[in-house]
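Aim 2 progress update. The chain analyzed this quarter is reproduced below.
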Amino acid sequence: MYLALWILCLAAALISTGFLYQLIGAHRDRRRFAGIGRWVTIGRGHRLYLLEKGTGGPTVLFEAGIAATNLNWFHVQETVSRFTGTASYDRGGLGWSSPCRTARTPGNIAVELHAMLQGAGIKPPYILVGHSFGGLVMRRYALLYPDDVASVLLVDPMRCEEWPPLNPARQRAVDLGSRLSRYAIPFARFGLVRLAVTSLLCRSGRLSGRLAGAAGVGGRHVLGRVTDEVGKMPREVWPIVAAHWSRPAYYAGMYSHVDAIPDTVKEMQDAEPIRGIPVLVLTPGKSTPLSDEHLGRIGDNVQQVIAPASAHWIHLDEPDLVIDSIREMVMAASAETVAATV
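Predicted structure tokens:
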């Protein structure tokens, strides 16, 4: 009886300590890292975190992949801001933004993005830059608000035909992503995720390696993917990535995004093509190029450029290609503006 009581008290102490560790760490992270941007209220207390850099127009807007935040564009945004104004942000449910209140489909997110831009006072025209899932968001934005858009750059945009319900074979991957996200929430609440990601990104990585090994093949696979992708980002942002990944709200947001993939596919598979707006698609050299038919479904003025040295994360593998593409779009939009005023 005495031993059972002792074990119960020890467990309660460990849980309380973990909860306090997470609470203090989250407060410290917010004070250290979130001050470089600002929050924009888009209704009923819902706030999106916005990071602006540079001046002038047209403004380049960055939209990250399905579970990524504004940090994914850190290097590209920093460079582009030297020749024009830029804005990146965290979608609802991710990063420093409020939890999401609507399904994470491109249409809902595009409406929220438009509200944020209006609330922030960022005037069009915009050059839209979206990676992967973010490419679908930017396509939807261009369809909803075409008068605001000068051009669109899609960085290896998500291909609807590769995901359920069009490709039922990938449903298992969606289900796995949903389960992992849900399972991570309680671990994050009690500081275990913070311990793991801090070890991985801010220290030696030994602890995260042991935890991944204990989780089996799936844990080692996730660790490998994370190490590979985050390793391409500037080291100065690694502690901020760790701060994002330590938050229970991040995994709730990730779950909402992954769970909405079938609805996203249904929304975008028959979407109207973008008309009258130049669209550039960057496709990895390691992927099959999009067919002319596929490009035609995206828009009526679409070009495709192959990124020969890239996998899915072109803006991390070949950032200069993305930056140069944006520079050409800025120059073209600026020339059109000058011509219209003459």
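Confidence is low (pLDDT under 50) at residues 207-223. The first strand starts at residue 38 and ends at 41. These observations will guide the mutagenesis experiments scheduled for the next reporting period.
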